[in-house]
Records
---
Amino acid sequence: MKHRIPFNKPFMVGKELYYIAQAVLGGQTSGDGRFSKKCQQLLEERFCSKKVLLTTSCTSALEMAAMLCGISEGDEVILPSYTFVSTANAFYIRGAKLKFIDVRPDTLNMDEKLLEEAITERTKVIVPVHYAGVACEMDVINEIANKHSVVVVEDAAQGVNAKYKDKYLGTIGDIGTYSFHETKNFICGEGGALLTNNDPFALRSEIIREKGTNRSQFFRGQVDKYTWVDKGSSYVPSDILAAFLYAQLENMDEITARRQGIYNQYYGALQPLADRGLIELPTIPDGCESNYHMFYILLGDNDTRMALIDHLKRNGILAVFHYVPLHTSPVGQGMGYQSGMLPVTESLSERVLRLPFYYELSEAEICSVVDAIFEFFSVDRQGDL
Ligand SMILES: *Cc1c(COP(=O)(O)O)cnc(C)c1O
């Protein structure tokens, strides 16, 4: 069913199609061409990262991270249960034992106070997920990781161009991963990136990404032939996609400003409902600079949420929720997890609702969404936006 106001809509802001034409006419459509290099350089400079490599998705960047960390059977990985499956699968497919911990009720991010008690001598990696583009408490997480010699892999799929204490998300841990999927802030259909400031990781990530070969070194003239030197797979995206992405990255500030406008309009307009205790609004803690990846509200319970989704649907508006907590999923239950083990995650995942949010969402459309929510609660809207 087509909605009058969809949940997400892919968009173009500038020279996307022109750059794609340039990539194709320029004679290179495979990876690591001119536009891939331009994207990587732009991200390295802007985010102060030593190494950025474009990948086919954030999922593949996370899989590369698991390989870089040398994950094998029985190694333990600590992560939130309230996340997308790829955060878990990347480590699970290499045999890791997953230790899910609960999230904070204010940001829905990994609760750093629960981290230390989850660490054992088998812990190899901690994976903070920056939900909605709002940072996890990275100082505390890094300190605990350093103390126990554990690697920090930031799942910053939703956190591109967001900051924690003046550092860009994805550059604060040992490895960071981004997504450029069409549902994220900066898009190319399917795509991602791996970031690291760690030299050995940077060197090895090039090899893992190029099917286990030293082809990148060969193209730089550092070796005289290229050959199989390590484990690896095919994680290099086409330069056609990089061309699309480069046009988006060039307009990062404009895209972020537009998203901030949408976020602020929702926030201001829905405040009266929060004041009456009917909904909760998202929190951005001090020290965090959001990239305004999404706008969610929290309802009182699951029944209210489902009824609101239906009400919005009847008004032609698609609002969605996620995630089924990974620990209560069929795979999570197979690991021995049960409902009741992570109460904050379970409660929040039943109450969260994401409102339509995309670059081209107009003020009038936001107004209709807000009107429909007020109507659902039988509350009059005082004044205009
Ligand atoms: C979107 C997302 C991913 C996966 O990104 P892809 O580029 O689609 O592989 C991973 N983790 C989180 C938290 C995400 O939101």
---
Amino acid sequence: MTPLDPYLARTRIAYLSMEVALDPAIPTYAGGLGVLAGDTARSCADLELPVVFVTPVSRDGYLRQEIGSGGEQIDHPDPWDPAAHATPLDAMVAIRIEGRPVWIQSWLYRHACPHGGCVPVILLDTRLEQNDPADRGITDRLYGGDEALRLKQEAVLGIGGERMLRALGFEIQTWHLNEGHAALLTLALLRRHRLSAGRPAEGPLLYDLDPVRERCVFTTHTPVEAGHDRFPYDLVSHVLGDFFEIDQLRPLAGEDALNMTRLALNLSAWVNGVASRHAETARRMFPGYRIRAITNGVHVPTWTHPAFARLFQRIAPDWAHDPDTLVRADRLEDAAVRAAHAEAKAALVEETKARCGAALDPALPVVAFARRMTGYKRPDLLFSDPGRLRAIAARWPFQVVVAGKAHPRDGGGKALIRAVHEQARALEGAVPVAFLPGYDMALAKVLVAGADLWLNTPLPPMEASGTSGMKAALNGVPSLSVLDGWWAEACEEGVTGWAIGRDGDAAEAAGHARDLYAKLEGTALPLWHGDKDRWTWMMKQAIARIGSRFHSQRMMRRYAAEAYLR
Ligand SMILES: *Cc1c(COP(=O)(O)O)cnc(C)c1O
């Protein structure tokens, strides 16, 4: 009996992802992609889908964020101890990197749902004595290091992951690549389908693509060309050696460089974007491929505050397993909804005090903005006209909380964090602004439930989906957001929240700040201050119309029925 026995016989699908947010105590994720993968795993357990997850162990986590006195982000590793959460497995596999064998071992993390379903997560680890000291750290730090290290990490995930599952005894029929990071897997599979001499090749190709394509499912998350991983072929040759002939790779992955998205597109029979709008953008970017849409969803019991969980239990006893039933949320009593929100808001007030010393006033509305700090998310949009913001706050007092990490090499994102701190200081006495350091799953839970209004201001069409507004809606928090990603599907003006700008109009981006201020001053804040009944009605509409639809059970039922059971 090995720890894997309960899973080996039934598991048929492997889900490979560079990051998976398994638990608030396990910092193996950077942001939305990892949280989505974690919610996917949680729903697979709930629905008892036969899926195994594969991801690097990332012992040093992604980034522990400290904010210096000048508002500068100071980067620290965020180590965790795999032995405290997972079981070591004894299989060992090797891949060749820069001509050296790199050995990989793995850990088994089990995610169990309260109903009894359980999914295995295989954490790949190169920190082994057998490895050259230069190679031991490959899986240590999520997205750490340079381009070469990134390619090595992707080789461990894609090539090492495939070998590891075989070595452990899994018989996988369908491989799900969560983003292009895992696309080297396709080469590992292709090598098993090299055409023997005498069989007709597909043009000059020496490999039979169809059996690989049939088995691969690819979810792309990146709506801009620059966001796709791309490696120069001389680097690929240097790192992977003769693993796969470069002249064979060019027609599959791009003439000039190895584009991981192209490779995955060419070798996956089923491809999807993560919202309708994103799939349209991806089709324009990659003409000639059939790209479907499955809009992301969030894991409802994970993101619902306990006070709302108690309310949901009364109107829909099966809500956690079958969140469609949250459509009944308009039956909730207003006073109960307000009381639950007050409880969640008190927790945010306390967390804010603890993290940055700021005292929020629970009697005033809190506008929250929390996401990865990077240019296209425009965390500075709200602060672009401080005079206007002061004038609005003089009529309709409100406070702002901001959170988010910048990638250690994203100088622009770090500058935005400094700029937000400068704005906060300049607005002191007029508009309280608190920056909460260390945005992670635990802080996200507090923020999405405790805020009164969830703000999102990406530059279209850059937001593939976005999910934090879904988490907020579950807790009765309406969004004020640019119509991009999922919000283009979920926004019902004045019902689930409000739109900034017109639908799909990127050219309008310059007017977004104006529109944001107009909605805050003319619509959202007056409603919060002046019409509590209508505001509470909107809270219930957010739960009923968004909570019942934008959840990961719906998302995984669709992946299972449409992508896995083709
Ligand atoms: C949900 C979540 C995200 C993704 O949210 P977006 O809406 O895509 O910005 C990122 N980080 C954390 C910690 C989250 O919980």
